[in-house]
Amino acid sequence: MKCEWCDEEGAFEATNKVYWELPDGSRSIELISVPCIKCPACGMEHQEEDIVEKIETQLLLIDTKKLPPSMTYDEFMSVPRWLKRNYFNF
């Protein structure tokens, strides 16, 4: 796989830890084992756009006040939603 940042071959799928600000700006949460792309050449780790969109959408559809300070990506994505879908995503 080619790295989007340095154009070197050798990037690979992995997981990492990220911190995400809640939509109301009150705090951030730590998400563990989030799918990512890692590049050994430049050291960059990033989430692909579909993962970013899933996290952002989930944050809009759940009760963020009840989130613990830290949780795994899978736990986060399984939090029950208040709404069925993101009505603001055109």
TrEMBL record:
It holds the Pfam family YokU. CDD domains: MqsA (cd12870). This is YokU family protein. It comes from Priestia iocasae.
